[in-house]
């Protein structure tokens, strides 16, 4: 029996979570296909229910990141495939196979995670995996490689238990592995590895009271060691200083002794002098880690609320939602409106109409969502729109979900069009806007299509939804058959002020898409040509693909421009249909 077979059957390294049947496969080649994966997993083919490839384009890289989800019939076969095929080559790339985690905090945790260096170049990724598998069950393992498949001599192993990581550390410390003394240590994140004091004898000081002199500052910092150089600068923000010592020990003592010390009403900020770019990276890393920790802690407890009445306050939301349970935090997003009153500029804090309510328990969040999603807040029954409540989702996850939905509902519609740039836009084509599923994807409650209104837009009753959410009556066509004139609404303009107050560009395009769809629908050219609802949706999506939002607004205002866009879009669509 081979070492691998012994490891697979070893009860000490059996999967710690029995019953799991879904595997996550990462680091796949760009051109990978489901047939490739079927061949790769052919020894387990009869036990597989589904193989699905996911391609996601990250903002920082134009190339798609490919991974796959594989569902097995039972846990034992999934576990055997995970261990037997992990870190093997597929289409020239070493793939990683892990359990599919609903909570990513498991994969990104430092617990049981080790870093290995000095790995000989002749060691294969599979040898690397089998070597460290003998110490315990592995969450994830990676031998870092270049684009040609050659590894860099270092890698990572993340165990399910700290005891396994400690055993691997002890073994590598006492023994040679592959005839080499491997350097193995507990994994640390970049911000934890970063030592800002290394080789730096300079201290940065800010929040200095304006009446403090250089001599007074020098006397404060001289007690920690000899100050070799000092510069004090006063600008529009305030006064700051750079202090240089003759030793790193003095620098460390000065930071520990003076940071957050109060001089008068000012609290000093004292830290190592760093480049602006380095400090920004460090702060961003801290913020990212803190956000990740909070998101993991309050997962399914944080609610994103839209259509909050503009005059509604955070105190009122606390009063309304507090009855469902303890509230951790409440925030209504705001912006500063600058306007001129009596020839003087004045600033007003305005609500953006959306915000967040975070509970301490999932039960309270669920109860609040069920009570108010799609309903009006007490005392705001006459508001234009009911509030919409969804679980908060970090931006990166939200973009990935939207990309997957876009690929699912809009296959093969990534062609470049002459008057738009669809590459970076979420609406290179628009699905049928009257389909309730699509409203739900854009953040609308599926049962509230008839309630959705926007400023300066009359409520549209052109479509009636049946109980099974299927569109079955087009009143405009019904009116046409009865020779009843319909309004063209050509003189209406979008509410730019409202649009600019929305959360992000995606929300603004949601609003413009709703407005433009109705405008095209009631356009005399549309009625004369008997353009279908599906085509109207595609034309709307083409217009929304334009990079500049203000250009889209101008098109929606100018009837002649809108007519020209409709004609261009129809020519393109008709051209595609003839190919």
Can you tell me about this structure?
The structure is a single chain. This protein has 579 residues and is α+β, with helices and mostly antiparallel strands. The chain has 4 domains: 3-193, 2-Layer Sandwich (Alpha-Beta Plaits); 202-273, RRM (RNA recognition motif) domain (Alpha-Beta Plaits, 2-Layer Sandwich), CATH 3.30.70; 298-392, RRM (RNA recognition motif) domain (Alpha-Beta Plaits, 2-Layer Sandwich); 397-578, no CATH class. It is 36% helix and 24% strand. It has a 4-stranded antiparallel sheet, sandwiched between helices. A 4-stranded antiparallel sheet has the order 8-9-7-10, with helices on one face. A 4-stranded antiparallel sheet has the order 12-13-11-16, covered by helices on one side. Strand 21 and strand 22 form a beta hairpin. Helix 16 runs parallel beside helix 19. The two termini are 60 Å apart. Residues 1-16 and 413-491 have low confidence and may be disordered.
* Span between termini: 60 Å
Q: Which fold does the CATH topology of the largest domain refer to?
A: Alpha-Beta Plaits
Helix content: 25-40%
Strand line-up across the major sheet: 2-3-1-6
Rg, rounded, reads 30 Å
Q: What's the architecture of the largest domain, going by CATH?
A: 2-Layer Sandwich
Shape: globular
Indicate the structural class: alpha+beta
Tally of helical segments: 20
What's this, in brief?
This protein has 579 residues and is an alpha+beta fold.
Descriptors for this entry?
alpha+beta, Alpha-Beta Plaits, globular, 22 strands, disordered N terminus, 579 residues, four-stranded antiparallel beta sheet, 20 helices
């Amino acid at each position: 029996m081979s070492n691998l077979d012994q490891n697979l059957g070893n009860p000490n390294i059996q999967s710690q979570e029995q019953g799991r049947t879904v595997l996550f496969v990462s680091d796949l080649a760009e051109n990978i296909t489901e047939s490739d994966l079927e061949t790769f997993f052919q020894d387990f083919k009869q036990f597989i229910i589904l193989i699905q490839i996911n391609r996601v384009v990250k903002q920082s890289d134009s190339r798609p990141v490919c991974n796959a989800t594989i569902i097995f019939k039972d846990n034992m076969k999934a576990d055997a495939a995970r261990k037997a095929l992990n870190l093997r080559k597929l289409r020239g790339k070493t793939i990683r196979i892990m359990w599919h985690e609903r909570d990513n905090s498991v994969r990104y945790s430092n617990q049981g995670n080790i870093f290995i260096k000095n790995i000989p170049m002749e060691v294969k990724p599979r040898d690397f995996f089998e070597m460290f598998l003998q110490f315990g069950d592995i969450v994830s393992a990676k031998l870092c490689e270049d684009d040609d498949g050659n590894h860099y001599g270092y890698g990572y192993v993340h165990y399910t238990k700290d005891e396994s990581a400690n055993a691997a550390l002890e073994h590598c410390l006492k023994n040679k592995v592959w005839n080499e003394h491997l350097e193995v240590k507990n994994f640390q994140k970049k911000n934890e590895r970063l030592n800002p004091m290394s080789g730096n004898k300079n201290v940065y000081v800010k929040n200095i009271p304006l009446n403090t002199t250089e001599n007074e500052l020098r006397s404060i910092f001289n007690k920690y060691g000899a100050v070799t150089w000092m510069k004090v600068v006063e600008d529009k923000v305030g006064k700051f200083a750079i202090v240089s010592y003759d030793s790193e020990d003095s620098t460390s003592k000065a930071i520990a002794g003076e940071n957050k010390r109060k001089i008068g009403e000012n609290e000093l900020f004292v830290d190592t002098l760093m480049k602006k770019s380095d400090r920004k990276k460090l702060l961003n890393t801290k913020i990212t880690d803190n956000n990740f920790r909070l998101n993991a802690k309050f997962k399914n407890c944080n609610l994103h609320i839209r259509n909050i009445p503009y005059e509604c306050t955070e105190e009122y939301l606390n009063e309304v939602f507090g009855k469902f349970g303890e509230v951790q935090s409440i925030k209504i997003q705001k912006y500063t409106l600058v306007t001129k009153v009596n020839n003087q500029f004045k600033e007003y804090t305005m609500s953006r109409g959306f915000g967040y309510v975070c509970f301490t328990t999932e039960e309270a969040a669920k109860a609040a969502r069920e009570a108010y999603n799609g309903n009006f807040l007490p005392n705001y029954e006459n508001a234009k729109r009911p509030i919409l409540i969804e679980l908060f989702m970090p931006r990166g996850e939200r973009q990935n979900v939207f990309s997957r939905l876009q690929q699912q509902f809009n296959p093969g519609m990534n062609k470049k069009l002459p008057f738009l740039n669809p590459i970076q836009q979420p609406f290179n084509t628009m699905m049928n806007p009257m389909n309730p599923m699509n409203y739900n994807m854009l953040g609308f409650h599926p049962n509230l299509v008839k309630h959705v209104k926007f400023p300066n837009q009359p409520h549209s009753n052109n479509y009636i939804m049946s109980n099974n959410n299927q569109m079955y009556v087009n009143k405009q066509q019904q009116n046409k058959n009865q020779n009843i004139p319909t309004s063209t609404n050509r003189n209406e303009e979008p509410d730019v002020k409202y649009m600019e107050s929305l959360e992000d560009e995606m929300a603004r395009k949601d609003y413009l898409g709703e407005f433009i769809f109705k405008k095209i629908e009631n356009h005399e050219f549309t009625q004369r040509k008997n353009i279908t609802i599906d085509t109207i949706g595609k034309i709307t999506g083409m217009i929304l693909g334009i990079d500049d939002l203000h250009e889209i607004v101008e098109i929606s205002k100018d009837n002649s421009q809108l007519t020209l866009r409709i004609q261009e879009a129809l020519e393109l669509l008709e051209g595609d249909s003839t190919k």
